[in-house]
Amino acid sequence: MYSKQHNLNKPGSVYQNVSGASAMSFREGMRLLPKFLFKTKNRVPNRELPIIKKKIIHDDKAINAHSLTWLGHSSVLIEMNGKTIFIDPHLSQTASPIPFFVKKFYKKPALDLESVLEIDVLLISHDHYDHLDYKSIKRLKDKIKIALVPRGVKKRLISWGVQSERVMEFNWFDEIEIEKISFICVPAQHFSGRGLFDRNTTLWCSWIVKDSFASFFFSGDSGYFNGFKEIGNKFGGFDICMIECGQYNERWRSIHMLPEDVIKSFNDLGGKYLMPIHWGGFALAFHEWDEPINRIYDLCQKHSVPLLTPQIGESVLLGKNYISRKWWGNETTLYNNNSNTNL
User: What sequence ranges are listed for the domain Metallo-beta-lactamase (predicted)?
Assistant: First the structure.
């Protein structure tokens, strides 16, 4: 259904989910605003989160390596065939046009920017502040070789100083191959906008990144929808699925998955390992800051889902032994299923 109807989203249009799902109204959002402003207990960590400072190593040994580095929230760095791929980079301290409104849980970015000589491919899933960060783009713009973005987002990057010829826009199911790496833009069920009057004037998406050795899925933001089954049937067998697991609420379940939905989407996608994202960075919902990962952790144990829980800034290397740890709690424990084997 989705591949046949994705051309409903045409340039210059107000974009839509094929299912008809939409975000809550402006009026409902304003009613909930006081709950966002006055944070309840445990919505933010009561301690500084441990960070591993990530450096990018530029040498010949990286040519055959495939690694993922979670940099907090939904920022992921992929090093693949000697290429550096950065997804939804967020290196600043806020995720809101009002600086004090949504502040990051940790003060310094997990990426050592001095080690970034160039970004071979920048991927953006949508234009919300916690995924498309102005300060990050400004700091990285001269290092970006090419940026792949959903329709309508190009103009934002150009206005922030990224050269026009370095930005390519994609519709759902568009794809491109760069240096023997395929990048496929696939549907998500979400919405877009950065202000009061631009809702859904840009597209939102998930991304597939694959080569002859490995295949990765990055969900961006999405509610659960039948499109995951189509993506799994068409492109499935992903080595690692990076799926959003936080900032949910029953009120907006159609555009942000609950933990139970995450497991369903992972099974639909045909993934080998689940790596939760969209948590550990900001308080954008009313749940406790670590509730998403705790619920996912328990559900994965119950359903025998291989789980990857890298610390912020920690790299997961395919072909190497990896042991998931419950590092965010008061006591570090090991995940007790087969996710502690070679990836």
Answer: 84-279
